[in-house]
Amino acid sequence: MPPQNIKETYSHFKNTIDSLKNAGLEFHYFEESFPKEKLEDALSNDHDTANAKNYSYWTLLTLLDEILPPKQPVYLFTDNYLKHFSGNRPALSLSLNWSTFTPSDSVDHQQTAQPDTTSRSIILFTDKYATDARYIKAAIDAVKVYSKKNINCTTITDLKDLPANPDWLFWLSDKELIASSHARNILSYQKGNAETKSSTINMPETYLPSIRLYKSVAADSVTHSLENKWIDGFGNSILTKEKKDSANFYRLYTHFDPGWNELVWSDNFPAIMYNLISGDSITTINANARDNRIIDQQQLLPSSVSNPVKKQNASTFTEINLSGLSWLLVLLLFFTERFASFRNSKLTANG
After folding, report:
1. Closest Cα to residue 52, out of 73, 77, 81, 29?
2. Which residues are registered as beta bridge partners of 156?
3. Interval 43-88: pLDDT, tens
């Protein structure tokens, strides 16, 4: 069983799980490395699900199939939420018995039922990055409709229209940030030369998947007291936060532009903006927390593969030592070159 929601999972399949335990089967967590545990201890422990890695169930089954012998009986108990299934449905040699259920969402309904009367004013100032501003406004408008929050998002191109003390100011311009903005949170593009790269944008504080990154501005080598909110695949800063006086300053080392990354094309872009502006900070909000779509039992079940096929697939990746053959080819080339050189010099002398 996965450690997340383990008590409800056990409660749902109590009789079956107890009979398997009495039959002598081992209990393992359905997570990376599949650690063994006493079932009683697993049920009594408080599991930290906030920092759990959100692996696809199919990915975990593929890993499990690699470490267990063929036809090994495995009894798996999980939820059937669609958010836990991604990638290709695997073909396994295990004897898999997979039982699923739909968890109760009563807690989620209680959380969403609480009204939020907080008002937030968001200003998008732009000049030549007007398209970037349209992407952001569309995402925030979607957040407003979905969350029912009182959000006022306005795009301006003239600083005379900048209101006093907005909650958020997105400074989408190469101009110097004016000191009299008095916004509580300010996000601006980091200045510098854009570097083309093939990487990803990673958001460690959320469960959101990585997003492809094409261009970014390199961070300077001077050490700052900056907090990394987003990083690229190499650990470089993509979004940083720095608190000065009573304001939070965010620096974005890429742009809200499809030419720089796939951020604005992502289905999660509204959720990303929601994480950004909610509570006037970047909060840990699981974008999939309210995704209660389920998958049909016939759709989630992997196909089976026989043991000979598994061995055949494994043999495809057998390492072959080519050092002896390589040295033989080197010697053959050496003697061929010497023979050709000797023959040419003899023909020249006789001529």
Report:
1. 29
2. 125
3. 988 776 655 666 789 889 988 999 999 999 999 999 998 888 876 7
Token match 């300077």: residue? 220
Kindly calculate the radius of gyration of the chain based on its CA atoms and give it in whole angstroms.
29
**What are the b/e assignments for 61-99, b being 16+ CB within 10 Å?**
bbebbeebebeeebbbbbbbbebbeeeeebebbbebebe
C-alpha span between 169 and 6 (Å, rounded):
43
User: The tokens of 8 are what?
Assistant: 């409800």
List the CATH code of the domain at 116-280.
3.40.50.880
Domain segments of the chain as ranges: 6-105+292-311, 116-280
Distance CA 54, CA 284 (A): 14
For residues 166 and 123, the answer to whether their CB atoms sit within 8 Å is yes
pTM given for the model:
0.51
Instruction: Report the run of H or E that residue 251 belongs to, with start and end.
Output: strand 247-252
How many residues would you count in the chain?
Answer: 351
Query: Which ranges in 3-153 belong to alpha helices (H)?
Result: 6-12, 14-22, 39-44, 57-67, 106-112, 130-147
Over the stretch 115-139, which tens digit does the pLDDT of each residue have?
A: 556 678 999 999 999 999 999 999 9
